[in-house]
Amino acid sequence: MTQAELHDFAQDWVKCGEAVTKARDLVGLSRADLAREAGMEPEQLRKIESGGAHKGFEKVRKVLEDKGVVFLDLLTAEVKLK
């Protein structure tokens, strides 16, 4: 993977993290509450939201989708409620 590809990959995870933060705000959950519901520590969720980690992303996404969040485009951090 080239340096440019690595940069693009990292930027994609930053946008995914932004989408999680927006979605969490839409449903009115604190970071601690969402982390608990997703079965992780708040620090891990903070890393996901900052784009520094992707482990656990799918668990978080599932919790948010179950609460009515629709992830329209992860690469632009576009989300809405059903």
Question: Topology, pairings included?
Answer:
Elements: H1 3-27, H2 31-38, H3 42-50, H4 57-66, E1 69-73, E2 78-81
Antiparallel strand pairs: 1-2
Helix pairs in contact: 1-3, 2-3, 2-4
Into how many domains do the coordinates divide?
1
Number of helices: 4
Helix content: 55-70%
Rg, please? 12 Å
Outline the biggest β-sheet: 2 strands, antiparallel
For the record, the CATH architecture stands as Orthogonal Bundle
Strand order of the largest sheet: 1-2
Q: Which percent band covers the strand fraction?
A: 5-15%
Fold and architecture overview:
- This protein has a single domain, classed as lambda repressor-like DNA-binding domains (434 Repressor (Amino-terminal Domain), Orthogonal Bundle).
- Helices cover 63% and strands 11% of the residues.
- The chain has 4 helices and 2 strands.
- It has helices at residues 3-27, 31-38, 42-50, 57-66; strands at 69-73, 78-81.
- The chain has a two-stranded antiparallel sheet with strand order 1-2.
- The radius of gyration is 12 Å and the shape is globular.
